[in-house]
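hey can u check if this looks right to u? its 266 residues, i copy pasted from the old doc so theres a chance i mangled smth
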Amino acid sequence: MTFLPHDRYCDEILHQVDRLRTVVTSGADLAATVPTCPEWSLEDLVRHVGGALRWTGLIVGTRAEENVPMDRVPGAEGPAATGDAAALDAWLAESGEVLVGALREAGPDTRVWSWSGDDRAGFWARRMTHELVVHGADAALAAGLSVQPVAPEVAADAIDEWLDIVRFVQRALPGAPAKELRAPGSSIHLHATDTPAELNAEWFVELPEEGIVWRRGHEKASVALRGPLTDVLLGFYGRLPLDDPGLEVIGDRKLLELWLERATFG
């Protein structure tokens, strides 16, 4: 498992918070349904993200040794008034600063609780970077705005992490939908078409009975998902439809659809 430098994650968290703030203050309808998370409005999504930033900031900042209930996190509920874009924007900016301040002070190797078995502050720097990347795309789609490209090294790392999360869920949560993500003898290839060769932005994923295995590289698979790296990331995360103009599916489409149905956090 290879991480980006800790400061790179911290910088990207602030960058992604700024992108989300731009959506909040764009004049978008905060009551609009998020198409990729239809149980949420745009404001619900923003409050979820801001609360998660503050929750993680408290875990890292206090060196928590166990999970912290959300009702013990100062400011996690966000502004009292609904529909107030300015208040939501200010709260979101402060939430990002809370987390990044805690992460920078802790450094990557300080021990803190996590649900993943990786009990280091560095886990949370990586996790919250990609949480913001994906939910930032959700917010842009809800606002009818273009989804902005993600820095290639961040997008590639987000795919690595997603594969690791699905594998962890398969092993740790026997009742999770991901446990049914099995197709022995079948495989998925992800291929970014807009990145330099040295980034090696290709993945080969197998789905045996015992749980997924994956590696970076170009290999022939049952199905391939090709396109710009940000589009491949968001398609593989279920944020863009497989028929999106930026994506190309070659081979067993139903295998990719199985992935999208079953690959979840639990």
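The radius of gyration is 18 Å.
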